[in-house]
Specification:
This protein is α/β, with parallel strands linked by helices. The protein contains ten helices and eight strands.
């Protein structure tokens, strides 16, 4: 059977455990050469341990694949640059960047601290921006010199970012930002042969096991809906040459279900053709809302 990512060079951040590990293994199974990036931090972002990345590299090599470990802090500008350079130096080029690393600092909004907010924004938003920015520069330079570029950025959003989630104000805001970042990357990088898409996975990870332990636990038999491996086939396909026609999309993945998120779009409207007075606005808004689709409920409110 053919391998859809044969010879492609892929970076997966946060690949030492959970969904990232599943991505790295699936890419390797499909013939990719993989850079397994993981700083080895705890779920809240504390600590460092390179053993996680090395363990996944060992798994890939045991399967007959090629991989190297990298423990760069993806939210550090210089370290993110070294991540891209490591891939190119080890395997000759870079084709795919999967931004997957993340942390949690769950807190109700009225109890959230600015330190927790900054930590989540740093790992998720800055941690998506820095590697992608360095990778984009690498691909742009290749395109400018006439080299063929067929590259991919695959970001990781969340249903929390698409719909909101009670108790996850920072995480939800960061993941929403990642979805918007993906749209801009797709629009700006197409000229260089780069596509950008995002996934919003529902799966069992360190980030969901404590909060939703009963819901996401593995069944004794049958299909494991929340297995992290369920997310990886879509991500791997998005990283392949076959997906060149798909960009600027956010996909939700849950078990065997793949759906495309509709995103913000202009809905029902009313146009007076002149400036509204405050006293007129109430009736106009009521009219618009009566004709509009209702919002998806915020997670934790249903």
């Amino acid at each position: 059977m053919s391998q859809i990512c044969a010879e492609r060079v892929v970076i997966v951040t946060g690949a030492g455990r959970g969904i990232g590990r599943a991505h790295a293994l699936e890419f390797a199974t499909q013939g990719a050469r993989v850079v397994v990036n993981d700083v080895g931090a705890a779920r809240d972002g504390g600590g460092e341990d390179g053993a996680a990345a090395e363990a996944v590299v060992a798994e890939i090599r045991a399967l007959g694949g090629e991989a190297i470990a990298n423990t760069s802090d993806i939210a550090d500008w210089e370290a993110a640059g070294s991540l891209i350079r490591d891939a190119v130096e080890a395997f000759g080029r870079l084709d795919v960047l999967v931004n997957n690393a993340g942390i949690l600092r769950d807190r109700m909004f009225v109890n959230a601290t600015v330190e927790e907010w900054d930590a989540v924004m740093r790992v998720h938003l800055r941690g998506h921006f820095c590697p992608a920015r360095h990778a984009a520069n690498y691909w742009r330079e290749r395109a400018k010199t006439g080299q063929s570029v067929d590259a991919r950025i695959i970001n990781t959003s969340s249903q929390s970012g698409l719909h909101g989630s009670v108790g996850q104000i920072g995480y939800a805001a960061a993941k929403a930002g990642i979805a918007s970042m993906t749209l801009v990357q797709a629009a700006e990088l197409a000229r260089y042969g780069v596509t950008a898409n995002a996934v919003a996975p529902v799966a069992r990870t360190r980030m969901t096991e404590d909060v939703f332990s009963e819901l996401v636990q593995a069944p004794e038999s049958g299909f494991d809906t929340y297995a992290p491996e369920n997310v990886s086939p879509l991500v791997t396909w998005l990283g392949s040459a076959e997906s060149s026609h798909v960009t600027g999309r956010v996909f939700e993945v849950h078990g065997g279900v793949i759906s495309v998120a509709d995103g913000w779009r202009r809905g029902a409207q009313v146009d007076k053709g002149a400036r509204w007075s405050p006293g007129e606005v109430g009736a106009a808004v009521d009219d618009v809302l009566e004709r509009a689709d209702g919002p998806v409920p915020v997670h934790g409110t249903r």
